[in-house]
Automatic annotation (TrEMBL):
It comes from Luteimonas galliterrae. This is Polysaccharide biosynthesis/export family protein. It is a multi-pass membrane protein. InterPro entries: Poly_export, Poly_export_N, SLBB_dom. Residues 67-150 form the Polysaccharide export protein N-terminal domain.
Length: 361
């Protein structure tokens, strides 16, 4: 019967085309969307050896910087002690905190002290200010014994991004290092991208990969911070790889380090499905987001080979990569049947309708 024949043919085309769409040819694939070839590249020892990234080194200007003697800046609070003269040392009273008895350096860098007058102290060291005060007070006090301390600081560094505490941190008389600042701010370990820290100094951005700088048991040289430095630690919400296909838990995976190996990505999804997956059909699709401008690259791994585990561990994924694991032959056949069998009822009904339509009343 013509209706039955056409229905069967249609069912076969739909089912087979669905199964064929679940496989990738290991040869170059023609992309109708962009009109170019999608390169199919096998993952080999030579490939992973060539993709090893060199260790990051600190920029020389950051590594060599050493803080000078502390220089007074606007916003500092200076406590001056003149021994045997409490009226000058603690005008607010002995019971008050030191900062209350201190004197603020004004935005223009000037500082006022009784009998010494108004002094431009911006850029002075503590010892230089002590000497200046002693010289001026000597005109009114015989052999003054003067001590100077900074009890409040106006110089700070700013923090932004995936830190638990982004409050500004003071630059004090004790030099502040990058590791100390990060330790005090505390990294949000679930959301931070450790490979993307940016230190902005004097209008220049320095990207510091904290993960790469402290790999293989090595601890990177510490960096001294200076007033006005800005630290930005990005979030990892846009740094994802996507694992789909015949794995136990298909999902998008964030990673907070420099990179993620193919083995790590498959491991986080529970690995290949032992029943439905095809070990020789593991693919990494790279460049999906830029396919309109640049052909994508598809990397192929034959996971049936024991060597494949070593290769997968050394193959680094990049943000935006799509890992796809193809189905085994029996899985494709079962899916073929699952798509075909629901149509058998339609075919049977169509045949019955034609038979009944052709019978005489």
């Amino acid at each position: 019967m013509k209706i039955t024949t056409r229905a069967c043919a249609l069912a076969l085309v739909i089912a087979v085309s669905g199964c064929a769409g679940q496989q990738m040819n290991t040869r170059s694939v023609q992309s109708s969307e962009q009109g170019g070839d999608v390169a199919m590249v096998p993952i080999t020892a030579e490939l992973v050896a060539g993709e090893q990234r060199p260790l990051q080194r600190l920029p020389s200007e950051l590594a060599s910087y050493r803080p000078e003697t502390y220089r007074i800046s606007p916003g500092d609070t200076i406590l001056v002690t003149v021994w045997d003269h409490p009226e000058l040392t603690t005008p607010a009273g002995n019971q008050q905190q030191a900062v209350i008895n201190g004197r603020l350096v004004q935005p223009d860098g000037t500082f006022f002290y009784p009998y010494a007058g108004k002094i431009n102290v911006k850029g002075m060291s503590i010892e230089e200010l002590r000497s200046t005060l002693s010289s001026r007070l000597a005109q009114y006090i015989r052999d003054p014994k003067v001590d100077v301390n900074v009890v409040g600081y106006g110089s700070r560094i700013a923090l932004q991004g995936a830190f638990v505490d982004t409050s500004p941190q003071d630059i004090t008389t004790v030099p502040l290092t990058l590791s100390q600042a990060i330790g005090k701010a505390r990294i949000n370990v679930e959301q931070a991208d450790l490979s993307g820290l940016v230190l902005t100094r004097d209008g220049r951005d320095y990207k510091l990969d904290l993960d790469a700088l402290n790999r293989n048991g090595k601890i990177a040289q510490d960096i001294y911070l200076k007033p006005g430095d800005h630290l930005y630690l990005p979030f990892n919400d846009r740094k994802e790889v996507y694992v789909i296909g015949e794995v136990l838990r298909p999902q998008a995976i964030n990673f907070k380090t420099t990179d993620m190996s193919l083995t790590q990505a498959l491991g986080r999804t529970g690995g290949l499905n032992p029943i439905t997956s095809k070990g020789s059909a593991v693919y990494v699709i790279r460049g999906v987001e830029e396919m309109k401008n640049t052909p994508a690259t598809v990397y192929h791994l034959n996971a049936k080979s024991p060597v494949a585990f070593a290769l997968a561990d050394r193959f680094s994924l990049r943000p935006g990569d799509v890992v796809w694991v193809g189905p085994a032959g029996v899985t494709r056949w079962n899916r073929f049947l699952s798509q075909l069998l629901p149509l058998s009822g339609l075919i049977s009904n169509a045949a019955s309708a034609e038979y009944n339509f052709g019978r005489p009343d």
